[in-house]
Fold:
Amino acid sequence: MAIKWVDQLALEGKRVLCRVDFNVPLDDEQNVTDDTRIRAALPTLRHILETGGRLICCSHVGRPKGKIVPSLRMEPVGAKFAELLGGDHRVLVTDEPVGDGARRVVQEAREGDVVLLENLRFNPGEKKNDPAFAKELASMAEAYVNDAFGTAHRAHASTAGVVPLLSIRGAGFLMRKEVEFLGKLLGDVDRPYVALLGGAKVSDKVKVLDNLIPRVNQLIIGGAMANTFIKAQGGELGASRVEEDSLDAARRIIDSARKRDVELVLPVDALVADSLDAPKGEVVPADRVPAGKMALDIGPETRALYAEKLKAARTIFWNGPMGVFENEPFAGGTLDAARAVAESSAVSVVGGGDSASAVKKSGYADRISHISTGGGASLEFVQGETLPGIAALEE
Structure:
């Protein structure tokens, strides 16, 4: 890909519009509860400032659906950003994403100031990739840098529409790291190459599975999606979540793995309970869940089996929890998987979303080679899709 990276751009004295992914969680008091995405963008933003660029950041928070939602304003995000950025830099938050007010803040900003535009998705033109909205964004800057991998799979005004309107354009350090690590998973890798996939739905992962099966040596399945595979092979799942309309897809994937000599590893035991909020579970064979019970986590025998496979791996891609990890009694399988991935000697890539949260919760995040900041974007990349936010920057 012929993409220019931020350290290849002449940005001194230029107003630089930087698309960042500051879509961070806020509590009821408007405090940022996880600043990982802000921290991830800091190397790029500091580079722009240190090379004399005049920085204009833009992002979205939440899903305001084209309307102003007071609880999703960028002000608390800007406060946390200023705290993490440090130095003498002021972070000026505009009261609208585009328009006279935003333009005035940009024009009046002093050297070293950082402008953070109001939530892009307050304007319906952002998600619609409206040319007029893109033109307004571009009019405030002379250069463009995209460092928001988490939105690279969206053809929005700030990720695609604005790009051809600014002749100086490229991607940031975070985007480069994401592309390099995820790209390795689709090329030549050290083997054994193990994909560990969890989560609720087979239907969400069919394309990923289809793209990985010709590449991996082992495919390990956990989470509720494993129920569908077990049911497809004749297992009894009680009241467990099963995608009945994905049983044929599961059988096709099982057959594809067998034909390509890919070892498909499914749970042998499960932790089951009457409800999601049960205080504890009981261990049963994964293919013989009693009536009225639901499988909510992988069992101890399965955890040991998965850890053994991961220990021998040289390359690992992991996306999706092994159970209902947000509930403490059923978090063990996911946390044990995180530990096994971290303790392996493999190049390990975690594909964002719930699995990234699980790794952080486990305390092993610093032992993972790369944790993606984009759940949906990382999955689309690994399933071989062209991401609009990346394609727009290719020259």
Notes: The chain has 14 helices and 15 strands. The mean pLDDT is 95. The domain at 6-174 is CATH 3.40.50.1260 (Rossmann fold).
